[in-house]
Amino acid sequence: MKYYHLEAYGLAVVGVLHAWGSFAAGQYVKMVEASPTSRGSDHFVKRFGLEVEITPSVKTNNDGTLMDPQPISKEEYTIKLLITKSQTASVRQEEMARTTGQRYKASLLDNFISWLRLYNMERECTTKQRINGGIYCTAWKKTWKSLKESVERKELYVYPKTSINAQVYFPEIVGFYSLIWNRYDNPDLYLGELSTEEHSFYPKAEEHSFTPEAQLTESALSDVAIEFLQHSYPKQKVTLHFDNDATQVPPEIFEEIGKKGLDLSLSEDGHYKMDCSQLDAFMAKLGTSDNLLELTMKHAGQKFVTLLAEQSFVRQHDRCGLLIEKSTRAGEWVMGSSLLKAYTAIVDTRNKMVRFRSVHKVKGRSTRDM
Question: Comparing C-alpha atoms, which of 347, 274, 344, 281 is closest to residue 312?
Fold first, then answer.
């Protein structure tokens, strides 16, 4: 079996670490909708963060920014990762590392399949838990000034729920992560390697069957042949960005979508949209010929990813939006969390690999439940 390889650095811990805590298999963190500020309902594409709780609680202004407390407190704020135990989780006592008032700084990954933007954040971890065989930082302390700076740097989101930027968390905490699409239309981050057995207890898993995992090396991601809009684009660069809902395509290809006579119009925020009452007929029309909006990736002639058109649409009231955006440069494709509707991603930063487990729907579902 081949894997997607990663470059990684080990976790450096400074200070005296000791104490006892619980070991829990099968735990995950919800990736909730996240935004640095409030935004209008016309925005189709979601951004996701890892759900956290901040104590003491913080208040936000009407635009979703932090509201300064009166007077400004000098006490530290605790940011705690909200971890949910799955149905198969077992709990036992095992020695684990916990800081005792001393802080450590975790080293950063240089490259997490190129889909992590590093913010050079010095994280102040106060609690670590041993979960599913790995050690994960689950709580931090910050002053009000540091908290506000994290929001300004988009490392921490406070709207509509409090969450941390997954691209900050992943590089600093080495271990296994499994990213999976849940039945509530959001991705979840499972702490550890998600086995097929565990997957069967996960929400929505009963509606899917599994095929062998996709195979590709990291170097091959810079030399991918992509089929889209009934065209083949050789030697393309592919990165992964699971905190964003949309697939990003090169700017010139994004413009080409609007010229294909697909009854799509541009929304105010620059996304393609259509009336949902026309969607069923639209999908039926696509199904009678080569699917213009189906995206396929190949390396060395071997197909390793296929994203169907139905997996790129989102329903918002009586309108449907296409989860496709412009990337920043020609030849660059960024796969977002909508890819998790077709594949479960299993990431091991310690052994420098990522695997994709293909997920196929067994039962029919309506759009936006897809």
Answer: 274
Q: Which of 268, 224, 285 is nearest to 250 (CA)?
A: 224
- CA-to-CA distance for 203 and 7, rounded, in angstroms? 32
Q: Which amino acid is at 193?
A: E
**For residue 115, what are its two tokens?**
């889909």
pTM: 0.74
What CA–CA distance (Å, rounded) separates 19 from 97?
Answer: 6
Domains and CATH numbers, the chain: 14-207 (no CATH), 211-361 (2.40.70.10)
Tokens for 225? Answer: 């042949």
**Strand, coil or helix: 197:** helix
Per the CB < 8 A criterion, the answer to whether 247 and 335 are in contact is yes
First to last CA, the chain: 29
B/e letters for 253-273, b = 16+ CB within 10 Å, e = fewer, are: bbeebeeeebebeebeeebbb
Q: How far apart are CA 4 and CA 355, in angstroms?
A: 6
In order along its 370 residues, the chain shows pLDDT tens digits of 333 333 332 222 222 222 222 333 468 899 999 886 665 444 678 889 999 999 999 888 777 678 888 777 678 899 999 998 765 444 332 334 343 333 333 333 333 433 333 333 345 788 888 888 888 889 999 999 889 888 888 889 988 889 998 878 877 777 888 988 887 778 999 988 877 666 655 544 444 444 556 555 556 677 889 999 989 999 999 887 888 999 999 999 999 999 988 888 888 878 898 888 887 777 777 654 557 899 998 878 888 888 988 889 888 777 788 999 999 999 999 999 999 988 888 877 776 667 778 875 533 333 333 3
Transcribe 232-248 into DSSP letters.
EEEEEEEEE-TTBSSEE
Q: CB-based contacts of 5: which residues, under 8 Å, 6+ apart?
A: 217, 218, 219, 352, 353, 354
Cβ-contact 139, 79 below 8 angstroms: yes
